[in-house]
Amino acid sequence: MSTQWIRGLFLKLGYPIMLIFSWFFRIKRDRLQKLLIDVNNRLVRGSKLKPAKRLLLLLPHCLQQSECKIRITFNVFNCEGCGKCEIKDFTQIAKDLGLELFVATGGTIARRIVVDTKPEAIVAVACERDLSSGVMDTYPLPILGIINERPFGPCFNTRVDIEKVKEALRFFAGG
Q1: Residues 70, 73: Cα–Cα separation, whole Å
Q2: Does residue 23 have a pLDDT over 90?
Q3: What's the rounded Cα separation, in Å, for the pair 20 and 103?
Q4: Which pLDDT band holds residue 1 (cuts at 50, 70, 90)?
Q5: Which of 15, 39, 120, 161 is a good FRET partner for 67, with 20 to 30 A between their CA atoms?
Q6: Domain for residue 6, yes or no?
Q7: Is 60 helix (H, G, I), strand (E, B) or coil?
Q8: Using 50, 70 and 90 to split pLDDT, how confident is the model at 136?
């Protein structure tokens, strides 16, 4: 049985059943969403994939510092590189690796970016809710999700471990 088939079975059948049970046992939804992301990441990493030629790095807009005057949601490369957030690092990574980099303001925009760019693989950073729905919506595309850190609460000045993102990119690049 292929890892891709197991991943599809888990995403389309296992996870919805888990949501029903979580309602009965009062398990918090974000715990299940984190579980979905973790299981998905393990299954993607366990599959035999060819190196992706078209790789998409998708970031949430809340990584940008709230006091920044530059809006990067239409073009992330508008970032002036002040260093107050990690966007500067990601634009450099995208330039160095020649990959698609986009910042999304929500799930609808993220799905449109995926449709428009037609990637072979995706590395996405977001909260549990957005990542879990993105993983479900983009199946069968291989996606590695990295949950952002929210020291100031949701959707406000979030952070991410850049090394985790680089490692996910290396995985899809075949190295």
Answers
A1: 9
A2: no
A3: 32
A4: low
A5: 161
A6: no
A7: strand
A8: very high
pLDDT for residue 169: 97
Note the pLDDT tens digit of each residue in 64-111: 999 999 989 889 999 999 989 999 999 999 999 999 999 999 889 999
Q: How far apart are CA 10 and CA 5, in angstroms?
A: 9
CATH of the domain at 164: 3.40.50
Residue 39 within any structural domain of the chain: no
Token pair belonging to 31:
């715990």
Contact 35, 93 (CB under 8 A): no
Range of the domain at 136: 51-173
Q: Is residue 146 part of a domain?
A: yes
Cα separation, 109 vs 57, in Å, equals: 14
- The count of domains in the chain is 1
Tokens of 87: 């966007």
